[in-house]
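Researcher: Here's my situation. A collaborator sent me these components and asked whether they could plausibly form a single complex. I don't have experimental data yet, so a predicted model of the whole assembly would be a useful starting point for our discussion.
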Amino acid sequence: MSFADLNLDPSILRALTEAGYESPTPIQAQSIPEALQGRDIMASAQTGTGKTAAFTLPALNLLATQHPVRSRGPRILVLTPTRELAAQVNEAARKYGKFLRARCVSIVGGMPYPLQNKLLSQPLDILVATPGRFIDHLERGRIDLSRLQMLVLDEADRMLDMGFMPDVERICDALPAERQTLLFSATLDGIMDIGKRFLRDPITIQVAGQKDKHANIEQRLHFVDDMNHKNKLLEHLLVEPGVNQAIIFTSTKRHADLLAEDLYAAGHKTAALHGDMTQGARNRTLTKLRHGDVKVLVATDVAARGIDVHGITHVINYDLPKFAEDYVHRIGRTGRANNTGIAISFASNTDRHLLRKIEQYTGHKFQPAVIAGFEPKRAVRMDDGEGRRSNGKRHGSGNGRPQGKSGFRGNNRDGGNRENREFRGNRENSSFGDRVMREGQPNRARDARQGEQKTDREVNGNSKSYTKDTDFQFARALTEEFGQRRPRSSNNQPANKQERFGNPNGHRGNNKPRATGNKSFGESSPKRPRSFA
Ligand SMILES: Nc1ncnc2c1ncn2[C@@H]1O[C@H](COP(=O)(O)OP(=O)(O)OP(=O)(O)O)[C@@H](O)[C@H]1O
């Protein structure tokens, strides 16, 4: 099938040819004809399979016909759970709607109101928004909904998880009842109820069951003894041939910052991406990732959601996600648009319950892999319902020596010959990530210091303290900011990991580069923390 068979407006076909698209992906081939018929749709497909175009193209096709009502308001509203995703959808709509001269605007939280007010006062066709900021503008009477024909709920599963459904309900109540509604999600599990509430007689389209998904992503698992082992393995993996760009996921924003700083100091073009950064900083980091100026992104779940960057060859789960759905979204940052990718997860024996949840969700059974020179010292237990045990599958050349194209310095997990290590000066006897490691382990001296732990305001004038640490707390912060939202139940878990861990240095962020001594990875010297590339 070709795009020409889909009955799309010629100006859209021209834009697709210019984008280099030859034929529709399965989700596009199935959704576009139904959407063009005016049907409401609930659709799910694997990450990276072109869901954005699956709803954007029929939405744009509406614009080829003039609306009878002459007003300025949007004809299409796309709601996304995150700001980054909104920016990406907006960009895609502009690309595909280039020859239609579609007027697309993105309105998200964290950006100044005056500019958004100005954008909303101009005539527009497609409005891409996060629910909270949309409601803000709606309540202030800044959005004219009289022409609205189509609502798209993108990443509906995530909107549900992040507690946006009450907002979505309020928005749906305000929209014309005669609209068409398209719902796209990575999974339809738990979404059916939403379909009944917000869609009219929807057709359900599911491309590949959960078990068939991600065939193009090689999923590896490495058992690790401790943080030190994890860091050595990470150092090794990042310099393996074939790594173009990588996203490393950590469980906390604080750890994302620390790991990014240390990787940067080790010579990797690294940046962090998480919800404590300003939206401007998040956008700049993503632009650098897109341009290849950032090679290693250390991110948390919310911030990295939906990132579509072609060069990402590797996803590394430095910490396993707490929710199996997040695993699927993480690994989906690689292997996009028919490419292949590698997803590597680190786990210890205490993570087995998380592994089991992921296995149940994805239908993919992990076979622990071992890289020569990086074998776990503790016996690996991969128990499942059948009592399976494994000591790990050997991965790599198996010549007994660690691999890596250059600068390997990791086969020395107990310290050993530290003179040859890169981190000298004030970082003697440490490897990158050691601070992350120290933060993750019990430390009496540090615990004793906890009472005097400083906030960032005290240290560097930044009002953010790192006491709120997980993405789910970020979701909660959004809830507090915009009212009404219902964070998922696990938000109520003991929140303050970071408070428990304390801070080994008593403070952070003095913005001074650390001495890095002989670097083996790259040449540049660190100049500042956080946005390092
Ligand atoms: N028909 C096509 N031919 C070639 N490339 C395509 C086609 N459709 C989409 N793409 C490209 O595939 C990539 C992934 O598309 P998209 O971001 O829409 O995936 P997705 O399913 O929404 O992923 P996620 O669930 O992770 O957000 C994009 O870079 C897009 O440009």
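Model: Some features of this prediction you could bring to your collaborator: The first strand starts at residue 41 and ends at 44. Confidence is low (pLDDT under 50) at residues 384-430, 437-533.
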